[in-house]
TrEMBL record:
<dbReference type="GO" id="GO:0043190">
    <property type="term" value="C:ATP-binding cassette (ABC) transporter complex"/>
</dbReference>
<dbReference type="GO" id="GO:0015871">
    <property type="term" value="P:choline transport"/>
</dbReference>
<feature type="signal peptide">
    <location>
        <begin position="1"/>
        <end position="20"/>
    </location>
</feature>
<keyword id="KW-0813">Transport</keyword>
<protein>
    <submittedName>
        <fullName>Glycine/betaine ABC transporter</fullName>
    </submittedName>
</protein>
<dbReference type="Pfam" id="PF04069">
    <property type="entry name" value="OpuAC"/>
</dbReference>
<keyword id="KW-1003">Cell membrane</keyword>
<dbReference type="GO" id="GO:0005275">
    <property type="term" value="F:amine transmembrane transporter activity"/>
</dbReference>
<dbReference type="InterPro" id="IPR007210">
    <property type="entry name" value="ABC_Gly_betaine_transp_sub-bd"/>
</dbReference>
<dbReference type="GO" id="GO:0031460">
    <property type="term" value="P:glycine betaine transport"/>
</dbReference>
<keyword id="KW-0472">Membrane</keyword>
<keyword id="KW-0732">Signal</keyword>
<feature type="domain" description="ABC-type glycine betaine transport system substrate-binding">
    <location>
        <begin position="32"/>
        <end position="175"/>
    </location>
</feature>
<feature type="domain" description="ABC-type glycine betaine transport system substrate-binding">
    <location>
        <begin position="194"/>
        <end position="296"/>
    </location>
</feature>
<dbReference type="GO" id="GO:0015226">
    <property type="term" value="F:carnitine transmembrane transporter activity"/>
</dbReference>
Length: 297
C-alpha cells in the first residue's frame, strides 16, 4: 500500500494529469494538479531523496500547501511509472540517475533552477573502524572499487530484463574484465574470510552490491553476507561496527544528515561513483519542464 503524506518530499514519483501529452488526451478534467489530486508518489520513507523533497524542494518552490507525497518504495514507484506510461497517462516520479527506467522509457528530469536537490552527487564507500587491520586485502579492494553511470546502469538493465542479481553481476564482470582487474590489482585472496555489507533496496544499490559480492567471492575467495536494510540502519551498522562496509553513501546532499550524525564513527574511503543526480522525473510526452511549473497547476 502507498501511504499519503502531506508536505515536502525528497525524491519521488508523482502521477500528474495533463490535458494533452504527446498528442494523446488524458482522462479527467481541470488543471493538472486537480487531475492528480495534488499527489506525488515517493519512495522509501526516511530516504535522503524523500527528505530532500519534503524538507527542501516542496517548501522551497512553495508547493507544500497543495501537494501531497505518496510514501512507498523504488519498486512501487517504478510500477506506477510503468503503468502510467503504458496508458500514456501523465505522471511525475521522484527519481535519480542512474536508474534502469531511463533505458526503458523516454523520460526527462524536471529542471531544478534553485538547485534544491543539490546538483550532482557522489556515492562513497564507508567501512567500519578496524577493517583495515582485520581484513586488509578486502579493505584494499573496497578502496580500489570505482565505476561510472554507464557500467552501473548496464547491470541494472540486466536485472530488470529478468536475470537474477548474481547472473547479471557474473555477465557484467565477464564483459568488463579490464575494469574489474583494476579493482583487484595487488589484492590477495581472502581464503574464505567473511565480510558483511549493508545496502538499501534501490536499483543502483542492488546492482553495485551484487557486482562487489560476485568479485569478492568468485575472484578473491571471500564469503560475503549482503544485508538489506533501511538507509538509517545501513549507516548505523557501519558506524557501530556490526557490519564491515557499505558502498551506497550518497553525498554530499542525500545522506548529509546521516553523515553528520555518525561522523567520526566510520572510515570514508571516498567516492566509488560520480554522476548521481536526484530530481522529479516525467515522461517526455508531458508538457512540463521545470519544478517551478508545478506552482501554477
Amino acid at each position: 500500500m502507498l501511504k499519503k503524506l502531506s508536505g515536502v518530499t525528497l525524491a519521488m514519483a508523482v502521477t500528474i494529469g495533463l490535458t494533452a501529452c504527446g498528442g494523446s488526451e488524458t482522462s479527467g478534467s481541470g488543471s493538472l494538479g486537480e487531475q492528480l489530486d495534488y499527489e506525488i508518489v515517493g519512495i522509501d520513507p526516511g530516504s535522503g531523496l524523500m527528505n530532500a523533497t519534503l524538507n527542501n524542494v516542496l517548501p522551497g518552490y512553495g508547493l507544500d500547501e497543495k501537494w501531497k507525497v505518496i510514501e512507498g518504495s523504488d519498486t512501487a514507484m517504478t510500477a506506477e511509472l510503468t503503468k502510467a506510461i503504458k496508458n500514456e497517462d501523465p505522471i511525475i516520479v521522484t527519481g535519480w540517475v542512474p536508474h534502469w527506467i531511463f533505458n526503458e522509457f523516454d523520460l526527462k528530469m524536471l529542471e531544478d533552477p534553485k538547485e534544491l536537490y543539490g546538483g550532482e552527487e557522489y556515492i562513497h564507500t564507508l567501512v567500519r573502524h578496524g577493517l583495515q587491520d582485520d581484513l586488509p586485502e578486502a579493505y584494499k579492494f573496497l578502496d580500489q572499487f570505482e565505476w561510472g553511470p554507464e557500467e552501473m546502469q548496464d547491470v541494472m538493465v540486466k536485472i530488470q530484463s529478468g536475470k537474477s542479481e548474481q547472473e547479471a553481476a557474473e555477465e557484467w564482470v565477464a564483459e568488463n574484465a579490464d575494469l574489474v582487474n583494476s579493482w583487484t590489482e595487488g589484492v590477495k585472496p581472502g581464503n574464505g574470510e567473511e565480510i558483511s555489507m549493508t545496502y538499501a533496496a534501490w536499483a543502483d544499490s542492488i546492482a553495485s552490491n551484487n557486482v562487489v559480492k560476485y568479485v569478492l567471492e568468485k575472484k578473491l575467495e571471500y564469503s560475503v553476507n549482503l544485508i538489506q536494510v533501511e538507509p538509517g540502519a545501513m549507516w548505523a551498522g557501519v558506524s557501530d561496527g556490526s557490519v564491515d562496509a557499505m558502498i551506497g553513501a550518497a553525498l554530499p546532499t542525500t545522506h548529509a544528515a546521516y553523515y553528520k550524525k555518525f561522523e567520526g564513527d566510520f572510515v570514508d574511503l571516498g567516492p566509488n561513483f560520480t554522476g548521481l543526480k536526484n530530481g522529479l522525473v516525467v515522461p517526455a510526452y508531458m508538457d512540463i519542464d521545470s519544478i517551478e511549473d508545478l506552482q501554477d497547476l
